Amino acid sequence: MSKTPKQIDHVAILPETVPFVGPEAQERALGKIFAARIGANENVFGPSPKVIEAIKNAAKDVWMYADPEALELREALSEHHGVGVENIVIGGGIDNLLDCATRLYVEPGVNVVTSAGAYPTFNFHVSATGGNLELVPFVNNCEDPDSLLERARETSAKLLYISNPDNPMGTWWDSDDMERMISSIPDGCMMLLDEAYIDTAPAGTAPPIDITNDQILRFRTFSKAYGMAGSRVGYCIGEAGIIRGFEKVRNHFGMNRVALDGALAALKDQDYLAEVVGKIADSREKIAEIAEKHGFKPIPSATNFVAMDCGRDSAYALALMKGLAERGVFIRMPGVEPLSRCIRISAGTAQDLQIFDDALGEIIAEIG
Amino acid sequence: MSKTPKQIDHVAILPETVPFVGPEAQERALGKIFAARIGANENVFGPSPKVIEAIKNAAKDVWMYADPEALELREALSEHHGVGVENIVIGGGIDNLLDCATRLYVEPGVNVVTSAGAYPTFNFHVSATGGNLELVPFVNNCEDPDSLLERARETSAKLLYISNPDNPMGTWWDSDDMERMISSIPDGCMMLLDEAYIDTAPAGTAPPIDITNDQILRFRTFSKAYGMAGSRVGYCIGEAGIIRGFEKVRNHFGMNRVALDGALAALKDQDYLAEVVGKIADSREKIAEIAEKHGFKPIPSATNFVAMDCGRDSAYALALMKGLAERGVFIRMPGVEPLSRCIRISAGTAQDLQIFDDALGEIIAEIG
How far is A312 from chain B (nearest CA, A)? Predict the structure, then answer.
């Protein structure tokens, strides 16, 4: 009999598999490289050339740990957002910061509210801390503030997660709606507002940042519009005392030094960001056209992807996704009904979308 | 009264300060850049030029997430160590992997054994999960296998941490001693063998890797001899079922893509590694000479640093460290008595060590 220690109870019951199989693993299984990589909501247009230059320049410094306070980037973000440096904590992407937030507040017996089909990595972190997930349905393809708030009240939830714009549907609420939601956060609850996709949303989507409110944390990233997914830099904005709490659980020397230099260069090149956001908007339109051409319904999106309602069930969407993969196109689909009637296409180059368009036509011809 | 949720009990009691203030924060406080950065056991000789080239080449790909399975690097490590890819998990440095290990096994009420004054970041992770730290003293400047094992038995500890060679003293046990220790791990206990400094140790320090033993995890890093601290790449080797457990808690899309390419290049350039290890050995000798010149006792080291016994108390060592900082020299010292009678100097260039030597002479002349 094994003498190895037992994993703690709420971890022992977790699966060893995860929701997202990487495109590389799919490529290995298929025996070929994807011709169009438009599944992970990466930014195919890439980061600013200044980011690439900053990374190259930082390469020689890689023998040094990064500044654990990441002060230079925090100061730049502080100026950018008009908040104090004490209101910002840097992490290895939003994933890492959501993980930190769950570790501050969640243990077995704690309720956490999110939407069924919303970002699975958040759920993954909650489960790892033994928290109980309370799931409310999307309404009209949107995460629904009212039912999220109601469930949070009913269950005395400590955390309430919402992404705006949302993933995987791409829908969004405007600033007024969000402000109304923020004003109704129940006592004893922290709202985690994931704004990974805010940079591609219409002006007026983000509610003003109120650093005096200790019931909301805002999560931002360099992975999407800034085109730096592989760098793993995100940040969280909140009331100073709450942000200080992250010091208790974050990996202080965990940031990649080269990535921090890249993020700083990205932030400073807002012209490039605007240019890329334009390209993403054009790509969204093109994806919507392709959807309609094939009889699918594109769901309006404020993100760097478009979910398209394929009009049938998840089995059909899954068959489309698999058929696309076999034809060299990496996409994803929502994992939970009724969202899983859709497939989700990330913004791509004209060539990516042509390949997608052609492949989609072929599969539909094949499977109906 | 604040309506923010309470942090969970075992996190609420933790300090918001951390043991390691970064050199950058010290530079800001001093108003100048360190002339010699020899405090964080970084590798001043830097990584292989091929690593720098790999980082530069990968810069353009930074828009893509890294392969969450990091298969290419794991395959290379598998070949390097003669173990299966299923025996290796990659993480953001050893810190991140120690964090994962504590999350698998530790919760409030669980005992964890380590040495008083050993790696504080491990303790930080244990505390964040609510575990109880059982500390045993160093014996003759060494982490002491016998007393660690005895305390683990007495307290039914689930984790036992030891670093070999050790930090902050630089001492080490040879392979036979380690094998004897491994053969005595108590039932229900997992030994975490931190081998961050193994690459600079004499041949025969590392015990053979036994991937059938599910009571030991071996931690390695690209941060030290490989000169990539700022990249944050480490790995853990263990029995396949235990390694699979990490899938439950690790941040799957958390690795920096550029860093993985760099680590692969580093691993492939073993000639460069050997060259750097030689430079580090020379530097250790030079540090020992400087210690003796000033009447201090260098402690034999198998790492990329040398601890020197300053022959008095922690207040004296602290005064030396502060005086050195004021003179532009970043070093560290152990945080716990009796180790804290020492200062710890990382391997440096000839210039770094000249600056250190001069500054040390000045302070001793000043404070006696």
Answer: 31
Q: What is the ipTM of this complex?
A: 0.97
Nearest residue in chain A measured CA to CA from B52: A59
User: Right CATH number for A49-270 from 3.40.640.10, 3.40.720.10, 3.30.390.30, 3.40.50.2300?
Assistant: 3.40.640.10
Q: What is the dotted CATH code of the domain comprising B49-268?
A: 3.40.640.10
Taking CB atoms and an 8 Å limit, are B46 and A37 in contact across chains? Answer: no
CATH superfamily of B18-46+271-367: Aspartate Aminotransferase, domain 1 (3.90.1150.10)
Report the alpha-carbon distance of residue A34 to residue A330 in Å, rounded. 6
User: CB-CB: which of B52, B67, B128 is closest to A24?
Assistant: B67
CATH of domain A9-46+271-367: 3.90.1150.10
Residue A43 in this model has a pLDDT that exceeds 90: yes
Q: How many CB atoms lie within 10 A of CB A184?
A: 16
- Which residues, 6 or more positions from B271, have their beta carbon under 8 angstroms from its beta carbon? none
Phi-psi region for residue A59, left (φ > 0), alpha (ψ -120 to 50) or beta? alpha
Do B18-46+271-367 and B49-268 show the same overall fold? no
Decide if B3 and A248 are in contact by the 8 Å CB cutoff.
no
Which residues from chain B sit within 8 angstroms of residue A69, using beta carbons? 22, 24-25
Q: Give SS3 for B258.
A: helix
pLDDT tens digits, one per residue of B40-92: 999 999 999 999 999 999 999 999 999 999 999 999 999 999 999 999 999 99
What single DSSP character describes residue A129? T
A105·B251 Cβ contact <8 A:
no
Chain B CB contacts of A65 under 8 Å are: 22, 40, 42, 223, 229-230
